[in-house]
């Protein structure tokens, strides 16, 4: 039996060798990623970044979009494709927009690692939030190859957000949804997000639950081309009317706007 024992010993050694090689490769990849992130953070906190960002925010050629919080500019640096949200305005208005960016950063931090949520690289300046730029097609213009599968993935992303204690609150806006270049759904702009807090934050947590309902309702509404009446089957059971929607329906009925 010595030959058989030698055979098994060799097999065990080969197995451990492969496992060790895979572990070393994984550790090397993790070290490279950490080093890459460190270099990016060094640049984001440098004067070079600030000197680029200030004029870029005022340059129409650099601005990707503008909204209630300010402007978004795009920057490629050392293999990273970045979207930087910059608060605009002055005085109290600028302070409020910076506060909103800080709230948004906290939401992104809680959702770190969820597929379909852009990565957040922090706020190197009190008025600038740095995010991963996601290439793709706006949902409004997207041609979905498998619509059923796409919305199934979108619902999974939204439920993963809720499980982490973050609701979006504005998914009915098509501008907040993106079909990535990989064909996968992405959820954008957490400016209206609400984070679940400790139990004694009663009103905040009530709003969080209302937003969660609104998020799922919005996914279903988009899936059925904006028509709640067409929702059927298992999807029908997912609908939960929010307080705001209930009040709006009552108001429409009172004003005679429903038919």
Describe this structure in words.
The strands form 3 sheets. The protein has a 5-stranded antiparallel beta sheet, with helices on both faces. A 3-stranded antiparallel beta sheet has the order 6-8-9. With 259 residues, it is of the alpha+beta class. The protein folds into 2 domains: 75 residues, Phosphorylase Kinase, domain 1 (2-Layer Sandwich), CATH 3.30.200; 120 residues, Transferase(Phosphotransferase), domain 1 (Orthogonal Bundle). The chain has 7 helices and 10 strands. α4 packs antiparallel against α5.
For this entry, give a set of tags.
single chain; 259 residues; alpha+beta; Phosphorylase Kinase, domain 1; Transferase(Phosphotransferase), domain 1; 2 domains; five-stranded antiparallel sheet; three-stranded antiparallel sheet; 7 helices; 10 strands; globular
Task: Give the helix/strand layout.
Blueprint: H1 2-44, H2 47-57, E1 63-66, E2 70-77, E3 80-87, H3 91-110, E4 120-125, E5 128-132, E6 136-138, H4 147-163, E7 166-167, E8 177-180, E9 185-187, E10 194-195, H5 202-223, H6 234-238, H7 243-255
Antiparallel strand pairs: 1-2, 2-3, 3-5, 4-5, 6-8, 7-10, 8-9
Helix pairs in contact: 4-5
């Amino acid at each position: 039996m010595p030959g058989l024992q030698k055979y098994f010993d060799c097999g065990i050694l080969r197995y451990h060798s492969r496992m060790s090689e895979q572990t070393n490769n994984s550790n090397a990849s993790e070290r490279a990623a950490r080093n890459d992130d460190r270099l990016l953070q060094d640049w984001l906190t440098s004067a070079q970044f600030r000197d680029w960002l200030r004029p870029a925010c005022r340059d129409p050629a650099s601005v990707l979009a503008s909204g209630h919080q300010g402007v978004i500019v795009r920057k490629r640096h050392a293999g990273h494709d970045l979207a930087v949200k910059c608060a605009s305005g002055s005085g109290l208005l600028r302070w409020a927009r910076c506060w909103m960016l800080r709230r948004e950063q906290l939401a992104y931090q809680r959702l770190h690692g969820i597929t379909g949520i852009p990565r957040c690289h922090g706020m190197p300046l009190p008025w600038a939030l740095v995010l991963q730029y996601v290439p793709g097609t706006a949902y409004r213009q997207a041609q979905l190859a498998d619509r059923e599968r796409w919305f199934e993935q979108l619902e999974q992303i939204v439920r993963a957000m809720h499980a982490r204690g973050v609701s979006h609150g504005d998914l009915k806006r098509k501008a907040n949804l993106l079909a990535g270049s990989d064909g996968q759904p992405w959820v954008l702009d957490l400016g209206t997000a609400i984070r679940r807090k400790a139990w004694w934050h009663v009103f905040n947590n009530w709003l969080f639950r209302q937003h969660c309902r609104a998020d799922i309702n919005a996914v279903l509404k988009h899936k059925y081309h904006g028509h709640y009446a067409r929702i059927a089957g298992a999807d029908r059971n997912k609908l939960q009317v929010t307080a705001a929607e209930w009040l709006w329906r009552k108001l429409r009925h009172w004003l005679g706007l429903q038919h």
